[in-house]
Amino acid sequence: MYKIYIEDKPVYVAGSTAYSVIDPQLTLELNSAGSLTFSMPPEHPMYDVPRLMRQDIYVLSDGEEIFRGRIINISKDWLNRKTIEAEGELAYLCDTIQRQAVYNATSVANLFRSYMTVHNGWIYPDRRFTVGQCTVTSNESSIYRFTNYNTTMREIQEDLIDNYGGFLRVRHENGNRYIDYLKDYDHEA
Length: 189
Known about the structure:
The chain is mostly beta strands and 189 residues long. It has two helices and 14 strands; from the N terminus they run βββββββββαβββαββ. β6 (64-76) and β7 form a beta hairpin. The longest helix has 15 residues, at 108-122. It is elongated.
C-alpha cells in the first residue's frame, strides 16, 4: 500500500476518498534523483499545504520509504486542480558547485568525501548529507582529478561514476541523511 506525505501530513492514503490524488507517477532511477508527480482536486484537505522547495515530500510503500525529495513545481489546470512535481534528494547535489581544485594522490573514497564536504559547506543544513559507506575502489594506487565550477552531481558523475562505476544511495537513519557510494546496489538500507 502506497502513501504520500508532505512533511508529516498525509496527502495520499490508499483507500481514502479524502486523501486521494489524481494520476500519481513515481520514477525511480539509479544514480538519478527520481521524480514524483500527481494532481490534487481543490477539495483535497491538503490543497493549500504544498510550498515550493521548502518541504520534504516522501512516498512509503508498505511502510518503507522509497522516495524523498522536494517540490519543484506547482501548477493549476482549468478545473483548479493543482499538479505537484517533486524531485528526489540527489538533486540537492545540483544546488552546489565544486570550485577549482586539484585532487592528487587520493583514493576514490577520499575524493567522494571531499566533494561531499564542499557540498555541505555551500548548502542549507537540511540539504546536507553525511557520508556513509564507500565501497567503490580503483585499480590505481592514487587518482588525480581537478574540478572547475561544475555542480557536485556532475563532478561525482564524471569523475567517479563514469570512471569507476558504482551507485549512489541516499538513506535515513536516526534522523540523519546518509549518502553511500556503493560498488554493488542491493536495494537494502
